[in-house]
Structures are given as structure tokens and as C-alpha cells.
């Protein structure tokens, strides 16, 4: 209840009326952080996810994810996959598959072990980073396959229509790794300051939220050990507005 605190009265000792001023009271802060702009946060894995629409082959997609301190997404449990399927990703009209079906490179590879009457093999995590990960079921094989390829790359197909998304309908494809496709990156949650800059571990920063006078230390993607500066109201000004992103900066609204 920090809104309109200035106009709220309370009874002190002896029945006298006390007026409280927000200017000199540290307010509770609800942090709006953990992922940079354009990324979706999932609390269950403390991770951020983003779909990149520029069509890249699997190996180029891997490098793009690494440049943003992430990797192609793998999933630790069904709940994480359901979270991904339920998201309405910010997709443009430019896409490499039908509008109602979207495919993304993800961090698995299908290793072919037998090429007799049908392709036999198994899924592997492309880049070992997790001790225990969810592995996909048997895939649908893509059309652009070469007989010389013994490793295919994973595409997760999800659906654009909300009804299909929220029912978790999806498919797994094993595709030629040099095909171009959108892709899904995953990275650990991070500290993001009030101006949407990413903050490195151990550094001081002001978290996104309602208090530009807060200074915290970034630890494991969370703001910790926070201290707040309290500002005096501006002198000689009756009506004023606090700057939402600059500490102790005011705009006088007097005529």
C-alpha cells in the first residue's frame, strides 16, 4: 500500500494524528528482473529462453546462442517443455515453415546406428552441460537427408494456434543439420539493471523495479545485499515528480 501514503493518516500515542511521508520511508521492492528484454523466464529451471527467427543452420545457431552466454535449449523435465510449448513467441511473418507450425533447432542430435530397412539410432545431448536431461521420443525424419550423414539435428515443432499450444501438442524432427531454421536459445537467469543492462556476477547494480535508489550485488542471477538511499524532498517546490530511473532526481511541477 505505498500509493497515496502521503494522504493517509494514522493515530499515534495519546491520540495525536501522525502524517507519513513516502520521501523518507524505504519501500518494499518487487523485482522485475532475471531475463534480458526479449527473453522468457521460467522459475522452475531459473532459466531464460528466446527464439531467434533468422534462419541459420544448426552449427551457426549453436554459435549464436553461445555469443549470448547460452546454448541451444535442452529440457530437464516435461514441465519445462510444457512451458516452452505454451509460450506465444514473438514471431514474424517471415518463417521457414507453415504459419500454423513452427520448428526450432534445439540442443539434441540423433545418432544413426543402423541404416537397414529403417533408420535406427538414439538421441544424445549435443553439448554436455546437464547431468540429467529429458530426451525426446522417436523422431520424424526430415526430407533433406543425405545417406552419408550419420548425425541428424533436432527440431522441435510447436503450433501457433492457442488451443493446440495449450494442449502441449508438438513433434520432434531429426533433420539435416545444414538446413536453415529458427532456433531456441536457453541461458541461466541473470541480473538486469533498471536500464535493462545485463550485470555480471559480483557487481553492484540497481535492479529493475520501483526504487531507483536501490543498490544490490548480483549473486547467481539474483539481487542480494541491497541498500537503499533515502532522498529529501526538493526544496522550494510544492508539486514534484520523482524520476523513475534516476536516484534523487526530481522534476518540479509548480507553475
Write down the CATH class of the largest domain: Alpha Beta
Helix fraction?
under 10%
Q: How far from one another are the termini?
A: 30 Å
- Mean of all residue-level pLDDT scores: 77
In the residues, how many domains can be counted? 2
Structure description:
With 255 residues, the chain is mainly beta. It has 2 domains: 40-188, Mannose-Binding Protein A, Chain A (Roll); 191-252, no CATH class. The protein is 9% helix and 35% strand. It contains 3 helices and 18 strands. It has helices at 58-67, 78-86, 162-166, and strands at 9-11, 17-19, 40-42, 47-56, 71-72, 101-114, 120-125, 140-141, 151-159, 171-175, 181-188, 191-192, 198-199, 204-205, 214-219, 222-228, 240-242, 250-252. Strands 3, 4, 5, 6, 7, 8, 9, 10 and 11 form a 9-stranded mixed β-sheet that branches. Strands 14-15-16 form a 3-stranded antiparallel β-sheet, with no helix packed on it. It is elongated and about 85 Å long. It starts with 8 loop residues before the first strand and ends with a strand. The model is unreliable at 1-13, 17-30 and 92-98 (pLDDT under 50).
Question: Summed up, what is this model?
Answer:
The protein is mostly beta strands and 255 residues long. The protein is built from 3 helices and 18 strands.
Fold topology:
Layout lengths: L8 E3 L5 E3 L20 E3 L4 E10 L1 H10 L3 E2 L5 H9 L14 E14 L5 E6 L14 E2 L9 E9 L2 H5 L4 E5 L5 E8 L2 E2 L5 E2 L4 E2 L8 E6 L2 E7 L11 E3 L7 E3 L3
Parallel strand pairs: 6-11, 8-10
Antiparallel strand pairs: 1-2, 3-4, 4-11, 5-11, 6-7, 6-9, 9-10, 12-13, 14-15, 15-16, 17-18
